[in-house]
Design a protein that fits this description.
This protein has helices at residues 58-73, 75-78, 82-98, 100-111, 115-132, 171-184, 199-207, 225-233, 247-257, 282-294, 314-330, 348-363, 395-398, 414-422, 437-446, 482-486, and strands at 21-22, 24-26, 29-31, 38-43, 48-54, 142-144, 150-158, 161-165, 188-192, 218-220, 238-244, 263-267, 273-276, 306-310, 367-368, 385-388, 405-411, 429-433, 451-454, 474-475, 488-496. It is α/β, with parallel strands linked by helices. It starts with 20 loop residues before the first strand and ends with a strand. A seven-stranded mixed beta sheet has the order 15-16-17-14-13-18-19, with helices on both faces. A six-stranded mixed beta sheet has the order 10-9-8-11-12-20, sandwiched between helices. The radius of gyration is 23 Å and the shape is globular. The protein folds into two domains: 9-268 and 473-493, 3-Layer(aba) Sandwich (Aldehyde Dehydrogenase, Chain A, domain 1), CATH 3.40.605.10; 273-463, Aldehyde Dehydrogenase, Chain A, domain 2. It is 37% helix and 20% strand. Helix 10 (282-294) links the parallel strand 13 (273-276) and strand 14 (306-310). The chain contains 16 helices and 21 strands. The structure holds NADPH dihydro-nicotinamide-adenine-dinucleotide phosphate (NDP). This is Aldehyde dehydrogenase family protein.
Length: 498
């Protein structure tokens, strides 16, 4: 029996921010939803309501988009010098840094992720703002070759209002991946966080009052995706949708955006293969493979949900991997317990979905190498679950589970494992473990993945490297120089000189 680590109710943090109904953030002020409707956000540890949040409908989304549209053309934002924009982004970074602990606590309370991890995510947000703060002064256009009777150049201009929609597994971080480039390039934003995790984005927008950012540049509407999100992404005054979420919703966003040909970037699901060759540092590989599907309770787009190991070392590696998973099993518990390595899943519906996949694995003939022990006290905890005996074609090996579940499979040689790794609709990331440089580079070149990590696990980019998916893992990129194209429109200007 696994006994999750617990924290007495009176020792769990209860930030003042949780009191009262949380309004929408529109035009720099907190306002209730016009309908007066609210919803409860729930603590996944206790499954009790945590805070009451306003539920925005079409009228509220219209107001937020109008505020963002006004801010977009207001000289206080539209006409500032690039260096001024840099300073504003640095101020935003500072305000997040100064309030990092409160933001991290809100995220741990709402999504159940251990505090050590939410602290990391909030500091990553600070890094992302500081990296993007460098762009405004480097956002060059082009001059074009032309006859001496003409001067031709290309301006790079912001798009307008960006609708930013994020998932619940890293709420502020996913939002900041959109807000930072949008602001660096002169756009304005309306954010729609997941209804499961609204608080950190709302609090972030409130904290912006402590910066010189003009009101209306960043707005937040909260509510159900199918209502609030749907209105935002189908709004005619929204020039671009930047979306993080499931592939199914991403396809819907893309189809809906066609109504006014919005620019769209999509960060979607994954089924990341971790590929371990026999010559790898097996101990290190096992430790990182365990981390890859246990951290965040596997609720990560880049989770290592398929592990391929070369046959000669399969038994040895499996033993090392099971050993490396032990600290996560022992560290299952309340996100505020110092020993916790894995929290509960974020909400009940998702918990049931993940358990459904584990049931499916055994029905399909798979063996649970770990994950069979019952967990005391109920709750939304799922133990680290390693499955063997399934084919890569099985549903459990093909569909995104988004829990602490991974399928271990064998392979014999490079060509075979590249085919297996690529045999999925996803193409977000891959990790390759080998001491042979030629094998590493050949695999990196041939794997269908937006990011390939050699002898390491996932490393999220805070700026320099583009991040995004091949195939059905997404469209476009966040970060890198590529992100600038996603938030600007080129304009060709021809000047007749004669
Ligand atoms: P969903 O697709 O269910 O939701 C994502 C966001 O879209 C939420 O804010 C949701 O709101 C909103 N939404 C839902 N329906 C609509 C709609 N009809 N119109 C507009 N917005 C809508 O994804 P999850 O929240 O479950 O997130 C998990 C998924 O995100 C996984 O597939 C994961 O792989 C992916 N992801 C991808 C990343 C990447 O960078 N590639 C990073 C992290 C996660 P609400 O929740 O309120 O319904």
């Amino acid at each position: 029996m696994i006994e999750p680590l617990t924290v007495p109710a009176d020792a769990r943090p209860r930030p003042d921010y949780l009191t009262g109904t949380k309004g929408l953030q529109i035009g720099g002020i907190e306002v209730p939803a016009r309908s007066g409707r609210t919803f409860a956000t729930v603590d996944p540890v206790t499954e009790q309501p945590l805070a009451t949040v306003s539920a925005a409908d079409a009228a509220d989304v219209d107001a937020a988009v109008a505020a963002a549209r006004r801010a977009f053309t207001d000289p206080a934002w539209a006409d500032i010098a690039p260096y001024q924009r840099t300073l504003l982004l640095l101020q935003v970074a500072d305000v997040v840094e100064a309030n990092a602990e409160e933001l991290a606590v809100l995220e741990s309370l709402e999504m159940g992720c251990p505090l050590t991890q939410t602290r990391w995510m909030i500091h990553h947000c600070v890094e992302v703002f500081r990296n993007h703060a460098g762009w405004p002064t480097k956002l060059y256009g082009q001059t074009a070759p032309s006859a001496s009777s003409q001067f031709q150049y290309v301006l790079r201009q912001p798009l307008g209002v960006v609708g930013a929609i994020a998932g619940w597994n890293g709420p502020l971080l996913q939002m900041v991946y959109k807000i930072a480039p949008a602001l660096a390039t002169g756009n304005t934003v309306v954010c729609k966080p997941s209804e499961h995790t609204s608080l950190s984005t709302l609090r972030f927008a409130e904290l912006l009052a402590g910066t010189d950012l003009p009101a209306g540049v960043v707005n937040v509407v909260t509510g159900d995706g199918k209502v609030t999100g749907q209105h935002l992404m189908s709004h005619d005054d929204v020039a671009k949708v930047a979306f993080t979420g499931s592939t199914a919703t991403g396809k819907h966003v893309l189809a809906t955006s066609a109504s006014n040909l919005k620019r769209v970037t999509l960060e979607l699901g994954g089924k990341t293969p971790y590929i371990v060759f026999a010559d790898a540092d097996l101990e290190k590989a096992a430790s990182i493979c365990a981390l890859a599907f246990c951290a965040g309770s596997g609720q990560a787009c880049v989770a290592g949900s398929r592990i391929f190991v070369q046959e000669p070392v399969r038994d040895e590696f499996t033993e090392l991997l099971v050993g490396a998973m032990a600290p996560y099993r022992a560290g299952l518990g309340d996100p505020f317990h110092p020993g916790t390595r894995m929290g509960p899943l974020a909400f009940r519906g998702h918990y049931e979905r993940v358990n459904g996949y584990i049931g499916l694995a055994t029905e399909a003939g798979g063996t649970l190498v770990t994950g069979t022990e019952p967990i005391a006290g109920g709750g939304l905890y799922v133990a680290p679950t390693l499955i063997e005996g399934l084919d890569n074609k099985s549903r459990v090996a093909q569909e995104e589970i988004f829990g602490p579940v991974s399928v271990l499979m064998g392979f014999r040689e490079l060509d075979e494992v590249v085919d297996l790794g690529n045999d999925t609709v996803f193409g977000l990331a891959a990790s390759v473990w080998t001491r042979d440089l030629a094998t590493a580079h050949r695999a990196a070149a041939r794997l269908d993945a937006g990011s390939v990590w050699i002898n390491r696990g996932s490393q999220m980019s805070a700026g320099p490297l583009p991040f995004g998916g091949h195939k059905q893992s997404g469209l476009g990129r966040e970060h890198g120089t590529q992100v600038l194209d996603a938030y600007t429109e080129p304009k060709s200007v021809i000047v007749e000189l004669s």
